[in-house]
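#onboarding

Welcome to the new folks! Below is a worked example of what a typical request in this channel looks like: someone posts a single protein sequence, and someone else replies with the predicted structure as tokens. Don't worry about understanding the tokens yet, we'll cover that in week two.

Example request:
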Amino acid sequence: MGGALCTVVAAHAQVDALVLAAPYFRVTYRWYYLFPPETWATLARPVVRWLHKSNRFIQVNRDEVKDKIVSYRWTPLRGTRPLIEIGSRARSPQVLKTVTCPVLLLHSHLDNAASPKAAAEAFRSIGSSSKRVVWLETSNHILFWDRERDQVADEIVTFLASLQTR
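Example response:
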């Protein structure tokens, strides 16, 4: 949700630059869900209070770090409402076209949490004339802990350094 929140802020406030690391604009959809995950969350909210998250749902492909990642093991389903609303607002064309600061988007094609497709669509609509996307190929959602974490760090450092020369 942090990427969505930062996108909204960048659209309404003067910021120097925006780094989006696996931002949430929608949940990754799988054909066997039948409906979008956001629809399931909305339908289940009145009857299901909490969802349990096992290590299987810690979205990182490096199994050896899953126990090191601090994550809520139980998530209140009512917390999905603000997530869905913020994601919807962040991906709206009115918001995206007003993001004019330099933008770096880092995302993985294998992200099981935040939709790569929705991120690509949002990126195309961002109004900045200085924007760059880096697609990762072996990581999942938690980019800073996953297989391409060194590349992620290098891309961010290079992006921030490039701002100094402007």
